[in-house]
Write a structure and sequence with these properties.
- The structure is a single chain.
- By secondary structure, the protein is mainly alpha-helical.
- The chain has one domain.
- Helix 2 packs across helix 3, helix 2 runs parallel beside helix 4 and helix 3 crosses helix 4.
Length: about 90
């Protein structure tokens, strides 16, 4: 086992009961096991991982409810923005 994985395993084993419960809760939300989500929690921290999971859940809810913008619409809007900026630069440049 390399030193990084060893440190990660040691940190997991040293979690308090409260942190272990929080890890288990995050794993359930992410539909993963605690061991699967631990590397991300270890690297980014509980708060960041929890925010990421919540954002993903909200995004999935938006998709399910049809609150999305099609790729075609996004690309058309992006093209309009690029063209508007290009015209301004040609006029001033």
């Amino acid at each position: 086992m390399n030193s990084r994985l060893k440190k990660q395993a040691e940190a997991l084993a040293a979690l308090s009961a409260a942190d272990r419960a929080r890890l288990e809760h995050l794993a359930v939300l992410a539909q993963l096991t605690a061991d699967e989500i631990w590397p991300e929690v270890w690297q980014y921290g509980f708060d960041d991982v929890e925010q990421s999971i919540q954002a993903d859940i909200e995004g999935q809810e938006d998709i399910a409810a049809g609150r999305t913008i099609s790729n075609e619409d996004v690309m058309a809007q992006a093209l309009q923005i690029v063209e508007a900026n290009a015209r301004r630069k040609r006029k001033t440049g």
